[in-house]
């Protein structure tokens, strides 16, 4: 018997999408409003969508709220196709997963309507938590159950939260609260939630305890500030103890009375052990693949497993920002399908992307990709394979001197040596292929067995998942810091000396990054000073500097250096004795100095810039005083002529 009724109708053509859009607009519109009426909501959530399975249209958009925030036609198509698991997944009951969509826009101003509060938030938060201008996140709650009253005997529908924020823990928890109520009470639940967010939630801000009332819950979150990366790498681990609510984050009105308080110690950190537990033997190899932005395809049978694994992989290099592409759940209907899966040719290389897929077709299509991570089928199998991994590790330790005798187990990774060196062949679409990492990649570093032994011991003693995750995150954080500290130190050395910064000359530029010069510093100040790992660190750095992760990091640090130099010159200008400088200068030179001071003042007059770079209002006042001083040295008629 067919256990999934979607296999015969999964095409949503353009006309069908337009019909769905018209239906949605007619259903959702109650009063004439504009996107400006939803400024507070749009900081947190773009819109809520409901996608249903239509017998004639396939997956179709049924409802959007607020209707003023309707996605573009192409975005609607992508949302519809990825709102349901692939037909081969066979997901019965309720399934939660997330996706990432490129923001295409529809010319009505909804594509990028970033508020000043969001701009300030992005300037102060960690890169991994920024509101994304170019992409949306979609958090999906899919329900499939048998219903003999429907034409095909199944009920299928998804509720999706569309947002620009990667707050996985917050939005998954919101889904768990909203979706069951929506399926029971209908659209009024979604309207009530959106209006509550728009009227009672505070502006996005960092470093404050925020109260987020939603129906019966009152969420308490705190988004940590990003420390200056030029001084030290910031820690992504959020403080568990939250401070008292501040007046700035208090609700504006009390339309709802939540009955339960829920404290989220982190809004974005995923449980690493949940996904990475069965590939612990290759954790360090995965870290190398992610930090060098190698293309990886994650193959599973459930979009929930795929999306969680992709997010866990991106998180292994924190606090370094992952600057390549990542698609937690990807289908053949995605508008970026050709971009990511075109055949490799003379002028085309495999894109730097991590794809999460569930369709077996991708195994054959992406056969040339260098790294494939195959997941176990479900949580029960994962626990079984973790136990087999324990047995394997014990046997490998006990039989180390056993005359070469070996014991074969139904292992998740076949000791992973065969899978890792690529000798294991996989038939396209073969669901029995071994779970684990399939790659010919040779790691530059030797793995640290200390962490692996501790995690395996935790499996044996039934240590809680969140404790295992904390252990893994701590080791990975220290490894990433050990890798990045030499780069941070070298970047700091590119700053010009203080004596080279003159108030009467243009601000000097930071020196450019030279790989050979950097590698020469590793002998005395390399990662070996803080990391126990041995291996070819220089080779890993050479690979890293060719990756999007390095480019993203370098551009950010170089921009910080340049802004710091501008800031230092502004300070030098504010403290200079310009009256003494001007005593032997011609009037045209004084006018040039006034224009220069005004230009500098305009450059740093933006409050956000002042806040980020630490330029104090006192300096701004001193610059204005310097301008008035220079004006006083000019004859009044000349001041009027040049409009000073």
Structure description:
Helix 12 (379-398) packs across helix 14 (449-460), helix 19 (548-575) packs across helix 23 and helix 21 packs antiparallel against helix 23 (617-632). The protein is globular, with a radius of gyration of 28 Å. With 644 residues, the chain is α/β, with parallel strands linked by helices. Helices cover 42% and strands 13% of the residues. The protein contains 24 helices and 13 strands.
Shape: globular
Beta-strand residue fraction = 5-15%
Biggest beta-sheet profile: 5 strands, antiparallel
- How far is the N terminus from the C terminus? 84 Å
| Poorly predicted parts | 1-31, 228-255, 399-432, 607-615
Number of helical segments? 24
Global mean pLDDT: 80
The tally of strands reads: 13
In the sheet with the most strands, the strands line up as 2-1-5-4-3
- Give the % helix: 40-55%
Radius of gyration using CA atoms only: 28 Å
SS-derived structural category: alpha/beta
